[in-house]
Amino acid sequence: MKLCLNMSRSRIIFPMLVAMIMSVSVQAETTDSDKYQAWQAELRTEALAKGIRAEIFDAAFERVALSERVIELDRKQPEFTLTLDEYLTRVISNTRIKNAKKKIVEHADILDEVSKTYGVQKRYIVALWGIETNFGSHTGGFEVISALATLAYDGRRSAYFRKELLSALQILNEGHISVENMKGSWAGAMGQSQFMPSSFISYAEDYNKDGRRDIWTTREDVFASIANYLSSVGWRDDITWGREVLVPASVDGAALSKAKTQKTMAQWKALGLTSLGGEPLPERNLSSRLVVPADGGGRAFLAYSNYDNILKWNRSNYFAIAVGTLSDTLR
Length: 331
Ligand SMILES: [Ca+2]
Known about the structure:
about 325 residues, alpha+beta, 3 domains, five-stranded antiparallel sheet, two-stranded antiparallel sheet, 7 strands, globular, disordered N terminus, binds calcium ion
């Protein structure tokens, strides 16, 4: 909300805001508070038509505080782009690798079970959990309804965030979490798996069968939800994500990467690609594409179908390479 940008405090309770911004110059003019109230009333009508109970909507919006901080974060453009190596150093630090190795042992029983149920190797569940929220320790402190209401009302990406807001209300309506405990990132990514509300509705699981899909505090639900997401988008547990390769100078890796050309392992071998250490590529009947990330310092990867499944979670090549690389340390 533009008006919030003039305020010095990061979070403002709406009635206060209303008092401060009411237009005084022309009495008949539609005030910003009127605009907001009309927006909320219209949203309420839509939510109730979708089956959300009035008391759920009203309790949620009683807490809504349009947030200047959320708008700032949404507007913020990265000042520079990290190289792949800089990104990987940050996202998969030695500490994170050490913790990932600890967590995969600590939760081996449930991870083995979930892995078998969904057909997703446990190292990918742990890698995503570690990269998304540092194994559940950095889940974001924003109230999701407030953050999404701010972004839905703001105008820049209203349609997207309005849909997510309605999904968040549906989650409250189904009783999976209370409004005060529905916390997440400034953009509404929730819980230990950082699911957006629409992803929660499609993929979150109640693995411990207590009637609530709880990606905030129930470890079994967190692991099963991550695995269910991957499984639902076509994960294969008989292959890995991909591998780093050496591309000979005779091959235009960047062009092949851009074209997303799929080739068999035998075809890549014939072009002269090798494993990172120079050893021949494995003999496997696998189709893959070459990924040469921008700012990757020339590093190149053969990406299997699971790589594209990770991109469905987050469409950044850096992210997918980080998940794959961290998972490789857990084999
Ligand atoms: Ca549960």
